[in-house]
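Quick illustration, no need to memorize.
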Amino acid sequence: MSSISPRIGGANEFVHYAASKGAVDVWTVGLAREVAADGVRVNAVAPGMINTELHAAAGDPERAHRNAPSIPIGRAAEPEEVASAIVWLLGDEAAYCAGAILEVSGGR
C-alpha cells in the first residue's frame, strides 16, 4: 500500500510518512521488474484522503472533511473505493499490470 503523499510532499505534517511511501513506490517498480519474467506481478495502490477513523484517532476528526475542497472530486474516498481498486489489481483484468502505482485520489 502506497499513498499519494510522496507526490504531494506531506509538508508540515507527514514528511516522514511521505518518505516511507516513496520507498514503497521505488520498491514496487524495482521488484516488479525483477520478478515479472517469473509471472509475479507487483503493484501498489496509492490512496489520497480516505474517510476513516484514523483522523479522529490522530486527534483531527474533521481532517477529511476540511481537506475535501482540495480534492477535485470534492470529497474524501470511502474505504470501499480503495478496496475496489485493490480487488481489481488482484484480478485477471489487471493481468498485464506490473510495477503500477494505481492512484485512488479523486484527482488530487
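The mean pLDDT is 94.
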